[in-house]
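By way of example, we now present a protein record of this kind:
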Amino acid sequence: MSLGGGGGGAQQQLQQLAEEIEQIDEQIEALQGEIEGLRSQKTEIDEAIEAIETLDSGETVQVPLGGEAYLRAEVQDIDEVIVEFGGGYAAERDQDGAVDTLESKKDTLDDRIDDIQSDIAELETESEELEQQAQQMQQQQMQQMQQMQQQQQQQDE
């Protein structure tokens, strides 16, 4: 790899590598945030499954209304659970059907988490390769500087 004339090109290449590494780090951070959000969704699903499996008809529950307000309500029929499928669609399911639907949603979230973790691993590999490339360029610059100093010393003698 040619470093160019006075080293300015090499500095520019090093700067570009540093910027690329920084962009990759930002992408990794965003993906890790996405994973945390997906894990939070899984926790909510687990809580819903637990509630569906443990509640019986006639029990009193607190229903969130939004804005951190709740209403006490009596479960009329535990076999009338409305489960959202996504895209704004929902359907009524019996207790077992609701749990199955929620378990399926968890599986989809797990698949998405696996995909994101794979993306993160690829980005980390790319970042490591860029860091190695930057280190090699720095070493080459150091060697060139040492050679120039040696030549200067020889000329001074």
